[in-house]
Amino acid sequence: MEQQSLPVRSETPTAWEDPEFYAAFEALPGLYVHPLPAVLDTSCVRTALAIRLQTGTSPPSLAAIRAGAVRLFMDTDTLEETYRRLPRFAKQLQTPLPVLVDLFESEWLPHIHILAVPSELRSLDPRARAVHDRDPDDYPVAALAALLSPCVLLTHNYRHFSAVGVSSYTQGTDALFAAVDLRVGETRLRAVASLPAAPVVVVKGGVQWANERMGYAGWVTLAVLLLGAVVLYNRQTDERKAAVRQAAADGAVWFLQETRRASLQLDRSRRELDAHLVPGPDHRSPAAAVMRQLALADDSMSAQQLIDALSAEARLPIGALRRFLRANTPAVFSETRRGSFELGAPASRK
Questions:
Q1: What is the mean pLDDT of residues 320-330?
Q2: Can you name the CATH fold of 36-185?
């Protein structure tokens, strides 16, 4: 938006009166709130351990997980496969097996939610069955990723997992980096958007402080200060008043430009992330909808909370939902408190 000089009483709207200023906020995409579900495959574990041994530092993928950009899930069959392959990895990496086991259990396992998806749920998505036809060992990973999609699939085996939308060796780690960029963009947008509220927060804090410390006298003091500011402004020359208004307008224009810049960064990161995710199914079953909702949730949820959060086409009658949750606890769901469930359980609880 082009900056305009302001006369003493302008008929041209200032930046904060300009409809374009508010339209910028209305056009903002929904902010990224929840960590994305990510499914871990054994091949990614092997690469991460190799990087850790070669560099002495944690791989970037683990840093992204620690940053909270994603929430990591693993099927018990995949976890067992990982332990079975650790001796082979130890030989390949010329490292004592206990060292490799310790690295996996100390650095990766604490971040993983473990669950055992039963066969009737694994077969819900035809994409997972297509992966099974190529390699049955990859079926648990593909089934869990399909159920939680759209999600990150941390694997390097793009040949076997092409049926669920993995097309490159680095797609999973690229998705992690895009998720982190999205978090950074969201933080920047929130920071910029909070700037106009800063004076209000300061004034509010000043009022509360004055009221607590001085009571009625504090309110009088604050009123005198505000009145003095108004009087001081009115005593300025027309040129100085115009300069003050121009400075305010310039600040509003800068704020609008920064908001747009942050919004564009957020949009680019979102598109980049979408391009590297396992896409969602053409039709999501109610069971898959429940699992994905819990994968996204920041806390455990009751059956009623799930009913309220799910879309109309994915809702089950509450009685049927409760039976489904109970029937798959503790294999798929953990009851963290009575009647409240989460997807899987942290490895520390297994």
A1: 94
A2: Rossmann fold (3.40.50)
CATH of domain 286-349: 1.10.10.10
Round to whole Å and give the CA distance between 200 and 206: 10
pLDDT in tens, 158-167: 999 999 999 9
Whether the link from the prior residue into 126 is cis, omega within 30° of 0, is no
Return the domain boundaries, the chain: 15-29+195-276, 36-185, 286-349
pLDDT one-digit tens code per residue, 152-188: 999 999 999 999 999 999 999 888 888 877 777 666 6
% residues pLDDT > 90 (the chain): 48
The per-residue pLDDT for 250 is: 54
SS (H, E, C) the chain: CCCCCCCCCCCCCCHHHCHHHHHHHHCCCCCCCCCEEEEECHHHHHHHHHHHHHHCCCCHHHHHHHCCCEEEEEEHHHHHHHHHHHHHHHHHCCCCHHHHHHHHHHHHHHHEEEECCCHHHHCCCHHHHHHHHHCHHHHHHHHHHHHHCCEEEECCCCCCCHHHCCCCCCHHHHHHHHHHHHHHHHHHHHHHHHHHHHHHHHHHHHHHHHHHHHCHHHHHHHHHHHHHHHHHHHCCCHHHHHHHHHHHHHHHHHHHHHHHHHHHHHHHHHHHHHHHCECCCCCCCHHHHHHHHHHHCCCCEEHHHHHHHCCHHHCCCHHHHHHHHHHCCCCCEEEEECCEEEECEEHHHC
Residue 115 bridge partners (DSSP): 75
| The token pair that represents 140 in the structure block | 């648990």
Per the CB < 8 A criterion, the answer to whether 324 and 290 are in contact is yes
Who contacts 210 (Cβ-Cβ below 8 Å, separation ≥6)? 218, 219, 221, 222
Mean pLDDT computed over 19-33: 40
